[in-house]
Amino acid sequence: MLTESFSLKISSNHLTFEMATKISNAAMFGLSPENMSSHEHLPLELDSSFLNTSTIIALCVFFALLCACIIIGHLLEEHRWANESITALLLGLCAGGVVLLVRKGASSHLLKFSEDLFFLYLLPPIIFNAGFQVKKKRFFKNFSTILLFGIFGTVISFCIISLGVFWIFRKIGVESLSLKDHLAIGAIMSATDSVCTLQVLSQDETPFLYSIVFGEGVVNDATSIVLFNSVQTLDFHNIDGLTVLKLIGTFLYLLLTSTALGIAVGLLSAFIIKTLYFGRHSTDREFALMILMAYLSYLLAELLNLSGILTVFFCGIVMSHYTWHNVTESSRITTKHAFATMSFIAETFIFLYVGMDALDIDKWRESKASAGTSAAVSSTLFALVLVGRAAFVFPIANILNCVQKSESSKIHFKQQG
To answer: Which residues are in the Cation/H+ exchanger transmembrane domain (predicted)?
Structure first.
């Protein structure tokens, strides 16, 4: 709906521009609208209501809920069991239930949540701000540990989930999936989202654990993408040792090129701002250039079939280290708070929609499986994700604890869970 209303607005503006062009052409040649040919008559009336009423209502509800999340989150700031994520989920569930009752069970949908909305508009500011605000010294100090969890851990989780799905799904009556489908499910479910976990952790109170969890989430994304894309392109009738080498090569290519692109765009932004010194005329241009170049790095990565998350993350790290120190003092304050605010709103919106989407009656109706089969599949996947996660977290963490000499660099059992 947001896309449709925006396109309608563009069409309306385009129509207004056409009218102005025809009027100017008529005045230039001494013509009046009455003298123009029949197919060039100017429209006398325009429909200015290009925004759908239902879209406005949906946006009003979402913005009101976002405000409520901020207020309630502030009131519950001192309670460790509650944060904006939990508040947004619960509010989303309540709002979805209310909409479902108002529409008499027809639908709980207010806005159509498309993949483009998530991957192009909501995800980039979250990842960029994480790279921009991350403690760089701590992150790169633990980079080897992050790679162990992000690469080897994801591969272990992928294998366990794929084998479990292949074995258990047949026993509960799901036999229509091929080997490629089972492996694809394993690749998708091994991609764990660390956003909710990071909401609970504090970068100042637990810097080591925060850097490990966040870094593992970023590398985990790249590994999962490589596994999924490889599964889709593999010829399962001709698998040999060369296939494994191709998988490793593809991953290294994705990791290195995505990182290099993010670093390059970050350095370019620092060079441009330092050379041209935008701050002498307008601090707004400095801020605008940083936002646009960061977003451009994400789009370029997606265009080149790289990992946009890795690219925009390292772009944020480079910008915070180089570009940020070349802008004026007012721009530094503005960028730091603006990036954090955009990330916060995007995260809250996602959790809010997830809560509402849980009561989407249309998706439940589309499923042809019985309630028992759906419950069995969901329970199986949930259990396999937990088992796959535990299968690499505890062994790798304990191995690292044996190697690490410093007590502050060890991952204690409570933190592993």
So the answer is: 73-404
